[in-house]
Amino acid sequence: MPTPTVFITGAAAGIGRSTALEFSRAGYLVGAYDIDATGLASLQEAITSAGGRVVTGVLDVTDPEQWEKRLKEFDAEAGGRLDILVNNAGILVAGRFEEMPLELHKRQIDINVNGVVYGTHAAFPYLKATPGAQVINLCSASAIYGQPELATYGATKFAVRGITEALDLEWAEYDISVKAMWPLFVNTAMTAGVSTGTTNSLGIKLSADDVSASIFKATRPSKRPYHKVHFPVGLQSKALSLGSRFSPAWLTREVNRRLSHT
Ligand SMILES: NC(=O)c1ccc[n+]([C@@H]2O[C@H](COP(=O)([O-])OP(=O)(O)OC[C@H]3O[C@@H](n4cnc5c(N)ncnc54)[C@H](O)[C@@H]3O)[C@@H](O)[C@H]2O)c1
């Protein structure tokens, strides 16, 4: 059996780091990429001291050329397999839409959306060459309904949802499945100091390990009789996504208005 491989962006911290450790424990060759070289060195130490194998490299997901280079380097180590690409790198800037400088709106779109487009595009030949390859995209419960004070962040996750659904259909002929993870707020550096209507009303209940465990589970073969694309993480996200599917639009808006204290 060849060693399975996973390529993870934003792996130096938070959910990405936890995902790298989870897959390493399961025997995967882990490709861990980030703009934070110090965080990557710490992850490398944690994986190798536990007997795992990891390839690390600096990758800014907004740079298509870096994507090409890092994927090629990883492929050389991975023996031509890319079983799982995890598009995890992301940023969140909270605040009133009109008060946030345009540069911060643009930066969220560049990393959270363009980063996924560039990476998934560059990874296609490697995914296609690997039977049963998967792409895992970090979506968010902020994309169930637009969130005040997180308007652009939530919009980037609506985009990730769209890319996920489309490519999961488009790439089925290549035996590539594409899945979206939907956590609500997670206790990482991303949410440290963030105070919005919904972080205050719903709290920050999930850990990075909760999300990485769900990512790992989502990538396992399943006996379910239907094809699953969306994976809510945690009870709150499950309840909100179910609720929004079955309630009329006016009620969904009203629930979100109350939760966000607007
Ligand atoms: N924390 C949450 O509440 C939450 C909830 C739902 C979804 N998510 C999503 O999960 C993913 C990971 O979030 P997290 O909470 O672990 O965040 P985090 O801030 O803890 O970690 C993000 C990592 O991404 C890296 N990164 C930032 N810009 C990058 C770039 N241009 N290129 C490469 N790497 C870059 C950072 O250096 C950092 O290591 C994000 O896509 C986020 O939107 C997070």
Secondary-structure topology with pairs:
Blueprint: E1 5-9, H1 14-25, E2 29-34, H2 37-49, E3 53-58, H3 64-78, E4 84-87, H4 102-128, E5 134-138, H5 151-170, E6 177-183, H6 197-202, H7 208-218, E7 230-233, H8 235-246, H9 249-259
Parallel strand pairs: 1-2, 1-4, 2-3, 4-5, 5-6, 6-7
Helix pairs in contact: 1-7, 3-4, 4-5
The structure holds nicotinamide-adenine-dinucleotide (NAD).
Residues 9-10, 12-16, 34-36, 39, 59-62, 88-92, 111, 138, 140, 183, 185-186, 188-191, 208 line the site of nicotinamide-adenine-dinucleotide (NAD).
Family: Belongs to the short-chain dehydrogenases/reductases (SDR) family.
Protein name: Short-chain dehydrogenase
Pfam family, one: adh_short
Task: Provide a descriptive summary of the structure in words.
The protein has helices at residues 14-25, 37-49, 64-78, 102-128, 151-170, 197-202, 208-218, 235-246, 249-259, and strands spanning 5-9, 29-34, 53-58, 84-87, 134-138, 177-183, 230-233. Helix 1 (14-25) packs across helix 7, helix 3 (64-78) runs parallel beside helix 4 and helix 4 runs parallel beside helix 5. The radius of gyration is 18 Å and the shape is globular. The longest helix has 27 residues, at 102-128. A 7-stranded parallel sheet has the order 3-2-1-4-5-6-7, with helices on both faces. The chain is α/β, with parallel strands linked by helices and 262 residues long. It has one domain: Rossmann fold (3-Layer(aba) Sandwich). Helix 4 links the parallel strand 4 (84-87) and strand 5 (134-138). The chain contains 9 helices and 7 strands. Helices cover 48% and strands 14% of the residues. The chain binds nicotinamide-adenine-dinucleotide (NAD). Nicotinamide-adenine-dinucleotide (NAD) is lined by residues 9-10, 12-16, 34-36, 39, 59-62, 88-92, 111, 138, 140, 183, 185-186, 188-191, 208.
